[in-house]
Design goal:
about 240 residues, alpha/beta, Rossmann fold, 2 domains, five-stranded parallel β-sheet, three-stranded antiparallel β-sheet, 8 helices, 8 strands, about 40% helix, about 15% strand, globular
Length: about 240
Amino acid sequence: MWPPEHERFADRSAAGRMLGTAVAEHLRQIGTGAAHDAADMDAARTRAPLVLALPRGGVPVGVAVAEAIEAEFDLIISRKIGLPWQADHGVGAIAENGPAVFDLSAVAAAGLCVSDLSPAVQRERVELRRRQERYRGARPAPDVAGRVVVVVDDGLATGVTARAAVRALRAGKPAHLVFAAPVCAAESVDLLTSDVDAVLDIHSPREFHALGLYYSDFTPLTDAHVLQMCTRMWEATKVPAPV
Protein backbone atom coordinates (compact mmCIF):
# COMPACT_ATOMS: atom_id res chain seq x y z
CA MET A 1 0.00 0.00 0.00
CA TRP A 2 1.23 3.49 -0.85
CA PRO A 3 1.75 5.57 1.15
CA PRO A 4 2.41 3.39 4.20
CA GLU A 5 -0.48 3.37 6.67
CA HIS A 6 1.59 5.12 9.34
CA GLU A 7 2.07 8.10 7.01
CA ARG A 8 -1.67 8.64 6.46
CA PHE A 9 -3.69 11.23 8.38
CA ALA A 10 -7.18 10.51 9.71
CA ASP A 11 -8.48 13.78 8.24
CA ARG A 12 -7.44 17.40 7.67
CA SER A 13 -8.04 18.45 11.28
CA ALA A 14 -5.88 15.63 12.65
CA ALA A 15 -3.17 16.54 10.15
CA GLY A 16 -3.43 20.17 11.24
CA ARG A 17 -2.89 19.29 14.88
CA MET A 18 0.30 17.41 13.98
CA LEU A 19 1.42 20.27 11.76
CA GLY A 20 0.68 22.75 14.54
CA THR A 21 3.29 21.03 16.72
CA ALA A 22 5.90 21.46 13.96
CA VAL A 23 4.95 25.10 13.43
CA ALA A 24 5.11 25.82 17.18
CA GLU A 25 8.59 24.32 17.34
CA HIS A 26 9.72 26.40 14.36
CA LEU A 27 8.41 29.61 15.92
CA ARG A 28 10.27 28.81 19.15
CA GLN A 29 13.48 28.46 17.17
CA ILE A 30 13.17 31.71 15.26
CA GLY A 31 16.16 33.90 16.07
CA THR A 32 16.73 37.53 15.23
CA GLY A 33 18.50 36.50 12.05
CA ALA A 34 15.35 34.80 10.72
CA ALA A 35 13.65 38.11 9.99
CA HIS A 36 14.58 40.55 7.28
CA ASP A 37 16.13 42.64 10.09
CA ALA A 38 16.28 42.35 13.87
CA ALA A 39 13.95 45.30 14.51
CA ASP A 40 11.25 43.73 12.34
CA MET A 41 11.45 40.46 14.26
CA ASP A 42 11.40 42.15 17.66
CA ALA A 43 8.25 44.05 16.67
CA ALA A 44 6.66 40.89 15.25
CA ARG A 45 7.11 39.06 18.55
CA THR A 46 4.81 41.55 20.29
CA ARG A 47 1.85 40.27 18.24
CA ALA A 48 0.33 36.84 17.84
CA PRO A 49 1.31 34.95 14.67
CA LEU A 50 -1.12 35.15 11.76
CA VAL A 51 -2.27 31.90 10.13
CA LEU A 52 -3.64 32.31 6.61
CA ALA A 53 -5.40 29.24 5.22
CA LEU A 54 -5.85 28.50 1.53
CA PRO A 55 -9.52 27.65 0.87
CA ARG A 56 -10.99 25.25 0.69
CA GLY A 57 -8.91 22.28 1.82
CA GLY A 58 -6.43 24.32 3.80
CA VAL A 59 -9.07 25.79 6.10
CA PRO A 60 -9.55 22.90 8.59
CA VAL A 61 -5.78 22.39 8.64
CA GLY A 62 -5.24 26.10 9.23
CA VAL A 63 -7.84 26.21 12.01
CA ALA A 64 -6.04 23.41 13.84
CA VAL A 65 -2.64 25.09 13.37
CA ALA A 66 -3.98 28.46 14.57
CA GLU A 67 -5.44 26.83 17.68
CA ALA A 68 -2.19 24.98 18.38
CA ILE A 69 -0.02 28.12 18.24
CA GLU A 70 -2.63 30.57 19.57
CA ALA A 71 -2.54 32.57 16.35
CA GLU A 72 -4.95 34.90 14.63
CA PHE A 73 -6.74 33.18 11.75
CA ASP A 74 -7.73 34.39 8.31
CA LEU A 75 -7.64 33.37 4.68
CA ILE A 76 -5.42 33.90 1.65
CA ILE A 77 -7.53 33.17 -1.41
CA SER A 78 -5.82 31.74 -4.46
CA ARG A 79 -7.11 30.18 -7.68
CA LYS A 80 -5.51 27.63 -9.98
CA ILE A 81 -5.19 28.46 -13.70
CA GLY A 82 -5.76 25.39 -15.83
CA LEU A 83 -5.23 24.43 -19.45
CA PRO A 84 -7.89 25.58 -21.93
CA TRP A 85 -8.92 21.96 -22.58
CA GLN A 86 -8.31 20.62 -19.05
CA ALA A 87 -9.20 23.18 -16.40
CA ASP A 88 -8.22 20.97 -13.47
CA HIS A 89 -4.63 20.62 -14.75
CA GLY A 90 -2.99 23.61 -13.06
CA VAL A 91 -0.21 25.41 -14.91
CA GLY A 92 -0.52 28.69 -13.03
CA ALA A 93 -2.35 30.48 -10.24
CA ILE A 94 -3.43 33.88 -8.98
CA ALA A 95 -3.89 35.13 -5.43
CA GLU A 96 -5.77 38.16 -4.13
CA ASN A 97 -3.80 41.37 -4.66
CA GLY A 98 -1.11 39.47 -6.54
CA PRO A 99 -0.01 38.83 -10.13
CA ALA A 100 -0.55 35.60 -12.01
CA VAL A 101 2.22 33.03 -11.47
CA PHE A 102 2.92 30.33 -14.06
CA ASP A 103 4.80 27.06 -14.23
CA LEU A 104 6.54 28.02 -17.45
CA SER A 105 7.85 24.52 -18.14
CA ALA A 106 4.32 23.09 -17.87
CA VAL A 107 2.94 25.84 -20.11
CA ALA A 108 5.61 25.14 -22.73
CA ALA A 109 5.08 21.38 -22.48
CA ALA A 110 1.42 21.97 -23.37
CA GLY A 111 2.51 23.84 -26.51
CA LEU A 112 1.22 27.17 -25.19
CA CYS A 113 2.52 30.58 -24.22
CA VAL A 114 1.33 32.62 -21.26
CA SER A 115 -0.85 34.88 -23.42
CA ASP A 116 -2.90 31.83 -24.49
CA LEU A 117 -4.04 31.53 -20.87
CA SER A 118 -5.45 35.07 -20.61
CA PRO A 119 -9.11 33.91 -20.83
CA ALA A 120 -8.50 31.39 -18.03
CA VAL A 121 -6.82 34.08 -15.92
CA GLN A 122 -9.80 36.38 -16.31
CA ARG A 123 -12.26 33.62 -15.39
CA GLU A 124 -10.30 32.79 -12.27
CA ARG A 125 -10.09 36.44 -11.25
CA VAL A 126 -13.89 36.56 -11.39
CA GLU A 127 -14.11 33.42 -9.23
CA LEU A 128 -11.50 34.81 -6.84
CA ARG A 129 -13.57 37.97 -6.34
CA ARG A 130 -16.68 35.85 -5.79
CA ARG A 131 -14.93 33.91 -3.07
CA GLN A 132 -13.61 37.08 -1.46
CA GLU A 133 -17.16 38.42 -1.24
CA ARG A 134 -18.58 35.07 -0.13
CA TYR A 135 -16.04 34.38 2.59
CA ARG A 136 -15.26 37.87 3.87
CA GLY A 137 -18.18 40.11 2.92
CA ALA A 138 -17.01 43.67 3.55
CA ARG A 139 -14.20 42.54 5.84
CA PRO A 140 -10.78 43.51 4.38
CA ALA A 141 -7.93 41.11 3.82
CA PRO A 142 -5.52 41.06 6.79
CA ASP A 143 -2.52 43.38 6.91
CA VAL A 144 0.61 41.22 7.02
CA ALA A 145 3.16 44.02 7.41
CA GLY A 146 5.62 43.24 10.18
CA ARG A 147 3.82 40.02 11.15
CA VAL A 148 4.92 36.41 11.52
CA VAL A 149 2.71 34.82 8.84
CA VAL A 150 2.06 31.10 8.35
CA VAL A 151 0.34 30.11 5.08
CA VAL A 152 -1.38 26.74 5.47
CA ASP A 153 -2.80 24.25 2.95
CA ASP A 154 -3.73 20.57 3.14
CA GLY A 155 -0.87 19.67 0.82
CA LEU A 156 1.68 20.90 -1.70
CA ALA A 157 1.63 19.14 -5.06
CA THR A 158 2.91 21.25 -7.99
CA GLY A 159 3.29 24.26 -5.69
CA VAL A 160 2.09 26.87 -8.18
CA THR A 161 -0.95 27.89 -6.09
CA ALA A 162 1.23 28.24 -3.01
CA ARG A 163 3.78 30.33 -4.93
CA ALA A 164 1.07 32.74 -6.08
CA ALA A 165 -0.14 33.12 -2.49
CA VAL A 166 3.24 33.66 -0.86
CA ARG A 167 4.46 36.04 -3.57
CA ALA A 168 1.36 38.19 -3.11
CA LEU A 169 1.94 38.17 0.65
CA ARG A 170 5.66 38.91 0.38
CA ALA A 171 4.76 42.24 -1.24
CA GLY A 172 3.02 43.14 2.03
CA LYS A 173 6.38 42.91 3.89
CA PRO A 174 5.80 40.32 6.61
CA ALA A 175 8.62 39.95 9.14
CA HIS A 176 8.75 36.15 8.70
CA LEU A 177 6.82 34.14 6.10
CA VAL A 178 6.27 30.38 6.43
CA PHE A 179 4.44 27.88 4.24
CA ALA A 180 3.17 24.81 6.07
CA ALA A 181 1.28 21.73 4.91
CA PRO A 182 1.02 18.18 6.27
CA VAL A 183 2.43 16.63 3.09
CA CYS A 184 4.56 18.35 0.45
CA ALA A 185 6.07 16.94 -2.72
CA ALA A 186 9.82 17.25 -2.16
CA GLU A 187 10.42 18.73 -5.61
CA SER A 188 7.87 21.49 -4.94
CA VAL A 189 9.45 22.23 -1.56
CA ASP A 190 12.73 22.82 -3.38
CA LEU A 191 11.02 25.32 -5.71
CA LEU A 192 9.12 27.15 -2.95
CA THR A 193 12.00 27.70 -0.54
CA SER A 194 13.24 30.79 -2.41
CA ASP A 195 9.87 32.52 -1.86
CA VAL A 196 9.50 31.98 1.91
CA ASP A 197 11.60 31.92 5.05
CA ALA A 198 10.69 28.29 5.78
CA VAL A 199 8.64 25.38 4.43
CA LEU A 200 7.27 23.04 7.11
CA ASP A 201 5.69 19.63 6.63
CA ILE A 202 5.20 16.22 8.23
CA HIS A 203 5.94 14.18 5.10
CA SER A 204 7.94 15.26 2.05
CA PRO A 205 8.03 12.37 -0.42
CA ARG A 206 10.12 12.36 -3.58
CA GLU A 207 7.45 10.17 -5.18
CA PHE A 208 4.19 12.09 -4.93
CA HIS A 209 1.24 10.44 -6.66
CA ALA A 210 -1.90 12.05 -5.23
CA LEU A 211 -2.58 14.20 -2.18
CA GLY A 212 -5.80 12.40 -1.27
CA LEU A 213 -3.91 9.16 -0.68
CA TYR A 214 -2.41 10.70 2.45
CA TYR A 215 -5.82 11.13 4.08
CA SER A 216 -8.23 8.43 5.26
CA ASP A 217 -10.98 11.06 5.03
CA PHE A 218 -10.43 13.51 2.15
CA THR A 219 -14.03 14.65 1.78
CA PRO A 220 -14.40 17.67 -0.54
CA LEU A 221 -15.28 20.90 1.25
CA THR A 222 -17.88 23.47 0.24
CA ASP A 223 -18.18 27.23 0.69
CA ALA A 224 -20.60 26.50 3.54
CA HIS A 225 -17.93 24.47 5.35
CA VAL A 226 -15.42 27.29 4.92
CA LEU A 227 -17.86 29.90 6.21
CA GLN A 228 -18.77 27.78 9.23
CA MET A 229 -15.14 27.36 10.26
CA CYS A 230 -14.23 31.00 9.62
CA THR A 231 -17.24 32.24 11.55
CA ARG A 232 -16.29 30.12 14.55
CA MET A 233 -12.71 31.34 14.53
CA TRP A 234 -13.61 35.00 13.97
CA GLU A 235 -16.30 34.98 16.64
CA ALA A 236 -13.82 33.45 19.10
CA THR A 237 -11.48 36.40 18.52
CA LYS A 238 -14.31 38.94 18.35
CA VAL A 239 -13.72 39.61 14.66
CA PRO A 240 -16.94 40.27 12.70
CA ALA A 241 -17.93 37.48 10.32
CA PRO A 242 -19.12 38.23 6.76
CA VAL A 243 -22.71 39.41 6.42
